[in-house]
Design brief:
The complex is a heterodimer of chains A (90) and B (112). Chain A has one domain. Chain A has three helices and no strands. In chain A, helix 1 packs antiparallel against helix 2 and helix 2 runs antiparallel to helix 3. Chain B is built from four helices and no strands. Classes of the chains: A mainly alpha (90), B mainly alpha (112).
């Protein structure tokens, strides 16, 4: 296995572990804002994990998936922030 | 060979930044400080890792898409953090006890 592929797999494993650690804040966070922060962070990490897996498996069309995932994560965070601020999405 | 080494260094640095951001998410005392730490670390980590993958790929369509993702996240991540911290402040989440400065509250937007 070439060096870059090995580092890709290692970094993916590290990031998946970090996502599981971030779930601590998403489940137990004292305020709703903590949970939204954790969801935002997990979304960013998921974008990176999908991209790295697309390079590890040589399936380049996964990059489109991560692009759309970044869009959806941004819209989710802004929508949740608006709901937290106003109590409604109107 | 030297490009390969650079790719490895960039990927490792990006993973390290993600790790440090998660430490900030777990250990900081306050929503505002957590958001501050984690947003910067995650944005920079994503930029470094995707830059390393762009170097590994070379000049192709996939590389251009990676550049699009980097630009998009560098624009939207601070925007989302700003909207989120404003919503949190208006929602009335208390700051940490040892906070020394609150410019937004001094301007009359506060609720305390």
């Amino acid at each position: 296995m070439p060096l870059v592929e090995r580092v890709l797999v290692l970094a993916s494993v590290v990031l998946v572990g970090v996502v599981f650690v971030s779930f601590y804040r998403a489940v137990l966070g004292p305020t709703p804002a903590d949970r939204i922060v954790a969801i935002n962070v997990i979304g960013t990490k998921a974008v990176v994990i999908i991209t790295m897996i697309s390079f590890a498996y040589e399936q380049k069309f996964f990059i489109d998936v991560s692009l759309v995932y970044a869009l959806i994560a941004f819209v989710t965070t802004v929508g949740l922030a608006k709901y937290l601020e106003q109590g409604t999405l109107g | 060979m030297i490009v390969e080494l650079l790719v490895v260094v960039l990927l490792s640095l990006g993973a390290l930044f993600f790790l440090l951001g998660t430490v900030a998410l777990l250990r900081f005392p306050d929503v505002y400080t957590r958001l501050h730490g984690v947003t910067k670390c995650d944005t920079l980590g994503l930029g470094l890792i995707l830059l390393g993958l762009m170097l590994h790929e070379g000049a192709t369509v996939a590389s251009a898409k990676l550049l699009f993702i980097i630009i998009f996240v560098f624009i939207t991540s601070p925007t989302a953090a700003h909207a989120l911290v404003r919503a949190t402040y208006k929602h009335g989440v208390k700051m940490w006890d040892k906070t020394v400065l609150d410019r937004y509250g001094e301007l009359g937007h506060g609720n305390s």
